[in-house]
Amino acid sequence: MDIASLNTGSQFGNWFRDPVFTEMRQLLESLRAPLSLMELFGGLSTGHIAIAALGCLPDLKLYCDVNADLIHWISQLHTMASEIHCGAISGDILLKDVKSLPRVMIIIAGPPCPPWSSKGARKSWEDSRSVPFWRTLDIIVDQARSGSLLIFVLENVLGFASKQSNGTVPLDEVLQLLFEELPSDWTIDYFIYNTKDFGLAHNRPRVYVTGRKTLGGALRSFPAKVQCFKRKPNVCEFARRQLPQEIEALVPGYRGRSYSPLQRSNLRQWRNALSSELNGVSFRGQCIFFAYDRSPSSRTSWKPNMSYETCECLTATGPVLHCFSLGDNAKSRDSSVLPSERAALQGFPLDYIVDDHRSQEACKAIGNAMSVPVLAVALFRELFYQLKTRPQLFSSASASLPRN
Predict the structure, then answer these.
(1) pLDDT band at residue 223, thresholds of 50, 70 and 90?
(2) Same structural domain for residues 110 and 137?
(3) DSSP string, 308-335
(4) How far, in Å, CA of 53 to CA of 34, rounded?
(5) 81 shares its domain with 164
(6) Residue 33 forms part of a structural domain
(7) Region of residue 280 (left: phi > 0; alpha: psi -120 to 50; beta: else)
(8) In what order do the strands lie in the sheet with 334-336?
């Protein structure tokens, strides 16, 4: 998967053709210099993909992630093995010397979320898995003080912005530290973005903390505006209406085949609960996703009035999704959701995840990943500022890193 295909968007879903996103790409047309990039907790390399989707040229200097399974997908994007640090030892940023890391323009990181996830114990900073967050901040501050860094983006779950049992809000503490430790010409903002507002049929709210090097005094209260897309999400964009025969054999849940007895029972209950939609002509052309490890009466994350436009939030552990086509008694589609389709719900290129390769590991990686168009919008805001205030940095393909 080369930069050219990512730049042209030939393998992206309909979100790429949204008029708002098209306008963003046009506004960055003059930004042709390579953008040096560091991805910490890099996952499926959403940062690299999002920058390329904006029509820019990402120049990866360092990728780190402790999950060794990711190397299969990361090697499709990045050919320089020296830049890829993947695995429990190589990819652990706690084992790296902060000052010896390559100097970059952009840092993108999604530190571990279990300390603040609603599915976890929510021990916040008392959870040992929160330690990498502080190391990430150390790296950002070091790079900013050296004068190389222009932009950073941090992503985490919504619980990160919520009051904890001890009365503190982790987000507030992180913002305060950044205000105190970053040079005085830095601006820090935060946003709560939901994937469903960016052309994808996926309900996934996340907190994004962004920072930029400014000219003159820092703008501590830069206007926060969410650029929602105009294109309405549609689950059918991400669910194949008719599975090819060769793919059909790979799907363990095709019409419930290979499901456990309990799962098949749940499937029957869902079919009964959705009988009017399955046969209703007015629903034809729509699909619906549901978790087949739960019955309609025991679902925990959807409200009684179910949405036919979005699926529930994908996580590293689930949910396990089945898909019905509506209006035709599920004749077009009655199967579990493929890993490639889960990836499409996050905005990844359609050919990135292959359905017959390590599906369990793929679903975990997809659930942990950032959503491509959401990160692209967060990056656009920062890149556009830099392009307008420091055009000389991006006038040549051989542009060097900025210094104080």
Answers:
(1) very low
(2) yes
(3) SS-BPPPBTTB--EEEEETTTTTSS-EE
(4) 14
(5) yes
(6) yes
(7) beta
(8) 287-291, 321-325, 334-336
In angstroms, the CA 319 to CA 364 distance is 10
Question: Residue 53: inside a domain, yes or no?
Answer: yes
By the 8 A CB rule, do 42 and 1 touch?
no
Please state, in angstroms and rounded to a whole number, the distance separating the CA atoms of residues 317 and 326: 27
**Average pLDDT score over residue span 282-295:** 86
How many domains are contained in the chain? 2
In CATH, what number is assigned to the domain containing residue 125?
3.40.50.150
134, 91 Cβ separation under 8 angstroms = no
Report residue 272 as tokens. Answer: 């009964």
Same domain for 257 and 162, yes or no, is no
Determine, yes or no, domain membership for 83: yes
pLDDT of residue 40: 96
Q: Let me know if residue 248 belongs to a domain.
A: yes
**pLDDT one-digit tens code per residue, 67-126:** 999 998 998 888 877 799 999 999 999 999 999 999 999 999 988 766 656 666 566 666
What pTM, to 2 d.p., does this model score?
Answer: 0.89
172 and 38 in a common domain: yes
Cα 312 to chain centroid distance, Å, stands at 15
* 132 and 281, same domain (yes or no): no
Percent of the chain residues past pLDDT 70, beyond the cut:
82
Q: Which residues contact 29 (CB under 8 A, 6 or more apart)?
A: 55
Residue 221 reports pLDDT greater than 60: no
Task: Indicate whether 148 and 266 sit together in one domain.
Answer: no
Q: What is the 3-state secondary structure (H, E, C) of 182-193?
A: CCCCEEEEEEEE
Nearest to 209 by CA among 137, 129, 152: 152
In whole angstroms, what is the distance from residue 247 CA to residue 353 CA? 13
Give the residue numbers spanning the domain of 306. 240-336
d(C-alpha 171, C-alpha 207), whole Å: 9
- 37/186 same-domain check: yes
